[in-house]
Amino acid sequence: MSFVPEDGHDHAHGHGTGIKWLDIMVGLSAMFISVVSLVVSIQHGRTMEEMVDQNERMVTANTLPLLQLFGSDYDDSPNAPRYSYNLKNTGVGPAVIDWFDVRYKHVSYADPGKFLHACCMPPGSTAHVPDGIFYSNVSGTVLPARETTKLLVVTDKAPADFMSRLAQAKTDIDIRACYCSVMEQCWLTDFGRVRPSHVASCPVPKDVNPW
């Protein structure tokens, strides 16, 4: 059995109101709302991107390390250090020191004894660290912000002419380092007046024997 609607009783309706100007206004309003929503969505996305970028820059700025070298003189009282050569992180974040290079006459030294023998000991002395002299190796270590490590400490038990020999050798000593922040931003420095150079990473060069 089939049902066929009687003539004049078809109840299908369109989506219009039947009033032409009103239908146009409704259509334009819907289009306007859609455009506004799209613009707001795009602007919101840009705002979020800017906020993320600003947060990243803030985190980066709050984790920047900066390595500096300086010497310290002490008094000559018994058993007191006479001199120390120091490495300090003056930045606001930890410094991950991938390698630290100490050179004398263009030769890289990982062994402090051999370095001191080459630069500052009289001919015929053995290649070992003299009594009264202490050192620290820093390659592969992390130096916290505002912290200092003593690379070389000279006490009154060191050879009498060691400091004068070290002073004479300074012009032939070159020091470089490559270090990174905890955000994996890296820098190469020769501790000169020029700012450290930003680098992608800190692989150890073939001619470097990390101190």
Protein traits:
alpha+beta; 211 residues; six-stranded antiparallel beta sheet; four-stranded antiparallel beta sheet
How is this structure best described in words?
- There is one protein chain.
- By secondary structure, this protein is an alpha+beta fold.
- It folds into two domains: 19-61; 67-199, no CATH class.
- The protein has three helices and ten strands, in the order αββββαβββαβββ.
- The protein has helices at residues 20-61, 112-120, 162-169, and strands spanning 67-73, 81-89, 95-104, 107-109, 133-135, 141-143, 148-155, 173-180, 186-189, 197-199.
- Strands 3, 4, 6, 8, 9 and 10 form a six-stranded antiparallel β-sheet that branches. Strands 1-2-7-5 form a four-stranded antiparallel β-sheet, with no helix packed on it.
- The chain is rod-shaped, with a radius of gyration of 36 Å.
- The relative contact order is 0.16.
- The model has no long low-confidence stretch (mean pLDDT 83).
Shape: rod-shaped
Oligomeric state of the chains present here:
single chain
Low-pLDDT regions: none
Evaluate the radius of gyration: 36 Å
Structural category is: alpha+beta
Name the helix and strand elements from N-terminus to C-terminus, one letter apiece: HEEEEHEEEHEEE
Number of domains: 2
The end-to-end distance, rounded to whole angstroms, is 99 Å
How many H/I helical runs?
3
Beta-strand percentage?
25-35%
Helix content: 25-40%
Q: Sketch the major β-sheet.
A: 6 strands, antiparallel
Overall mean pLDDT: 83
Quick one: how many beta strands? 10
